């Protein structure tokens, strides 16, 4: 074992010196963060306000939007500060807090997509028993499992990482990541790899396998039905499949980047791969569900139509005061 070094700060080294362009980057990412907050908040508000959307599928979509706000809050404020700063040091408590938020966000995304896949499986394969199987009690149990299980798993994992003796403080990323901290450990790589593999299997592969299994069952169930029914099922399930594909691609890119020697990579490619994981799903999820699901799309258009009418009325002078 090498001599461990105790440092109160980690150094995020993937930030490049882009001169005055950092102000433009700050404005662009601030606008992006504002859009994420606004779009996901609108989705949550619509689902809460409209009684017709108080169904399991839409409740789970609201969970997905809440998780997007949660994950974005763990990344963007610190990232925006770093864009304007010449120093990219982050304290150990702040770093491990960011690791917990970002990776719990990733785990919540996967568990929520899992219960959404189960909901669609019951709706398509057992339509006559849907309301009995997906009652309020079942929804509460699924929500509890989706939120609590990853939190417990991540708490144990982060506790193990915090206890590791570290032989450095350099993190090759624009935010704190668990694997990058593990690579700084003085413990042999074999031990680290075993813990990382077990954590990955528990957090990722089991939900992935469950989601793929449920959608395979849905495809087989639809294969025997008419084209009209297949069209309705496709309209209902397509947004979930798109969200799952987006999450799979971006998380795979982040995982692959963490395992590569980033010193030999193009820095712009490395930054894009590290950012897409925490940016693309929160941006695209509200667009996918807002535009693809007719019920949500109808209420979104209604809200904006009412706002447009109110603006026109406020600009139109009252005829009674015109002489």
Describe this structure in words.
- With 323 residues, this protein is an all-alpha fold.
- It has 10 helices and 3 strands, in the order βααβαααβααααα.
- The protein has a 3-stranded mixed sheet with strand order 2-1-3.
- It is globular and about 60 Å long.
- The model has no long low-confidence stretch (mean pLDDT 82).
| Stretches with pLDDT under 50, minimum 5 residues | none
| N-to-C order of helices and strands | EHHEHHHEHHHHH
Strand order of the largest sheet: 2-1-3
Please state roughly what percent of the residues sit in beta strands, choosing from under 5%, 5-15%, 15-25%, 25-35%, 35-45% or over 45%.
under 5%
Q: What distance separates the N and C termini?
A: 91 Å
Compute the gyration radius: what is it? 23 Å
Number of strands: 3
Q: Tally the helices: what do you get?
A: 10
Q: What portion of residues is helical?
A: over 70%
Q: What is the 3D form?
A: globular
Label the structural class. mainly alpha
On the 0 to 100 scale, the average pLDDT is: 82
Largest sheet: 3 strands, mixed
Structural topology:
Layout: E1 9-12, H1 21-49, H2 56-84, E2 89-91, H3 92-125, H4 130-133, H5 136-162, E3 170-171, H6 178-182, H7 189-223, H8 227-258, H9 267-292, H10 294-315
Parallel strand pairs: 1-3
Antiparallel strand pairs: 1-2
Helix pairs in contact: 1-2, 1-9, 2-3, 2-9, 3-5, 3-7, 3-8, 8-9, 9-10
